[in-house]
Amino acid sequence: MQHIVNPTERARGDSLHQRIRSTIEQRILSGEWRPGHRIPFEHELMAEYRCARMTVNKALQSLAEAGLIERRRRAGSFVRRPSVHSAVLAIPDIQAGILARGLAYRYELLHARRCRASRADRETMGALPTGTVLVLRCRHFAARRVFALEHRRIMVDAVPHIGDADFATEPPGSWLLRHIPWHEAELQIAAMNADAEIATLLEVPSGTACLVVDRQTWRAGAAITAVRLWFPGDLQKLVTRFTPTSEAGAK
Amino acid sequence: MQHIVNPTERARGDSLHQRIRSTIEQRILSGEWRPGHRIPFEHELMAEYRCARMTVNKALQSLAEAGLIERRRRAGSFVRRPSVHSAVLAIPDIQAGILARGLAYRYELLHARRCRASRADRETMGALPTGTVLVLRCRHFAARRVFALEHRRIMVDAVPHIGDADFATEPPGSWLLRHIPWHEAELQIAAMNADAEIATLLEVPSGTACLVVDRQTWRAGAAITAVRLWFPGDLQKLVTRFTPTSEAGAK
DNA sequence: AAGTGGTCTAGACCACACC
DNA sequence: GTGTGGTCTAGACCACTTA
Fold first, then answer.
1. Which of A232, A214, A205, A228 is nearest to A145 (CA)?
2. Where exactly does CATH 1.10.10.10 map onto chain A?
3. CATH homologous superfamily for A94-232?
4. What stretches of chain B show up as alpha helix (H) in DSSP?
5. A7-81 classified as CATH 1.10.10.10
6. Which of A81, A149, B33, B51 qualifies as a cystine partner to B27, CB 3.0-4.6 A?
7. What is the rounded distance in angstroms from the CA atom of residue A225 to the CA atom of residue A216?
8. pLDDT in tens, chain B (251 residues)
């Protein structure tokens, strides 16, 4: 019942569909099967591995979801031609990220006030005209150095129990993650020179290159928060490991 | 045979396992089911949707792969607590990205020479001591402005037919993507001030904040290329849309 | 018209974790 | 032990696409 697997193409994970997947994946990654190459049909793989169609189907669907192959009815499955590099960036919660590096973490609230939603809030986030916005400015420290400067706007009406939050002691990002655990977000990453004010707050020379991350967050279509984080360029690097993909794998 | 689906929880995609998946996903994203909440058992969902176990299994496996739930034998499936934000960054090929924006693209090779692998090549990329490295420096233009400056090292011995490439006319990234379509890579994103030399080449004032992307590429464990790209900070923004995840969904 | 993949069924055995 | 999820089978019907 077992298919004889060449030791060099042996994969971690013992289930048959994982072995089939890995075998094909390695042929693609090694360049043995180039873009456009037709993968064996499901019925051919069934015969090769002596298994049910559901098993090879699971392997091929998994490769299709990963963007390595394209499946076309009546035609077969084909190795895709990668066009964009799709990188999975891990962006940890700031506090957790600093602690994970073994550094001391400190948080400081600089400023907090409530006001009416601005025109920008309405236009970029779809906030209600009558909505109230909580505007926060705070700093994150890693081992006594300023690690990040945070400008945040929270749509008060969309966040239940926000009155219970004490942002003098808890970073708003952490509080929100605890209370609105799942959400959708949009991210922009850019490089900007620190002006005099930003430089003072980050305790770096004026003009220092900073990594600027803008993030907007929604839940069920309703805007929750918008935040801009300034990182001194030498302190924060975003690192990731990936494989190219053909088209957006994410929906 | 059909389960009666509430119109508000109706999903795109008509297959049953997609509907089951979407229904559960919306309960999680809306906050109705908070982290730690136990999803109904597979046999309960079978009864609710009057379908086979494979069908609910496919829906739950898909949610587990997406990082929204955690599955534990004997215990059940539970909504996960997100800890890191995992963003899928789309990083297009430079030429394709500029053309996609409707801008004119131009490429210029500044410098090319072959030399022995340096100590850094060996240490950071695992290049062979006797290996030859092709060192390139080039610029990418979008509508007459300098869009990016590229420093690249290619491990000549690992890339067949590289002698056929004409990097005076074709950007090395495009040539490599055509000839080594699938690979693994590691990416670092940082912000740096342009020094005098970089600023001159980018045609921006000295000290301008730049987005610096370092990428190293392997195929089947063998180093292919390492590249550093400098983007003027105001020109290139990396944009992405995502949902938080619990732990690394990528392997 | 034919043959592919997409989906689904109604079973089954097993590993594992918890009791 | 007991019950969960993990995996697999041997069928089946259908939609779609392409030859």
1. A232
2. 7-81
3. Chorismate lyase-like (3.40.1410.10)
4. 16-29, 42-49, 53-65, 94-100, 119-125, 172-179, 196-202
5. yes
6. B33
7. 6
8. 333 333 333 344 589 999 999 999 999 999 999 999 999 999 999 999 999 999 999 999 999 998 899 999 999 999 998 866 666 677 778 888 889 889 999 999 999 999 998 888 888 887 777 889 999 999 999 998 999 999 999 999 999 999 999 999 999 999 998 899 888 888 888 899 999 999 999 999 999 999 998 888 888 888 999 999 999 987 667 766 666 554 433 32
Query: How sure is the predictor about A11, in pLDDT bands with cuts at 50, 70 and 90?
Result: very low
**Type of residue numbered B149:** L
B41-48, Cβ contacts within 8 angstroms, sequence gap of 24 or more: B41/B76, B41/B77, B45/B20, B48/B3
Rounded CA gap, A86 and A92, in Å? 19
CA distance A194 to A230: 9
Residues of chain A with CATH 3.40.1410.10: 94-232
Taking C1' of D5 and every protein CA, the nearest residue is B73
The span from the CA of B13 to the CA of A191, in Å, is 39
User: Mind telling me how many Å the CA of B113 is from chain A's nearest CA?
Assistant: 27
Helix (H, G, I), strand (E, B) or coil at B123: helix
- Domain at B7-79: CATH architecture: Orthogonal Bundle (1.10)
Question: B95 CA to chain A: closest CA distance, Å?
Answer: 11
A244 to B185: CB separation less than 8 angstroms, yes or no: yes
pLDDT tens string A160-174: 999 999 999 999 999
Query: What DSSP line would sit under B14-66, residue for residue?
Result: -SHHHHHHHHHHHHHHTTSS-TTPEEPPHHHHHHHHT--HHHHHHHHHHHHHT
Q: Is A126 on the interface with B (CB under 8 A)?
A: no
Where does chain B hold its CATH 1.10.10.10 domain(s)?
7-79
Nearest residue, CB atoms, B191 vs list A185, A191, A250: A191
pTM of the model: 0.85
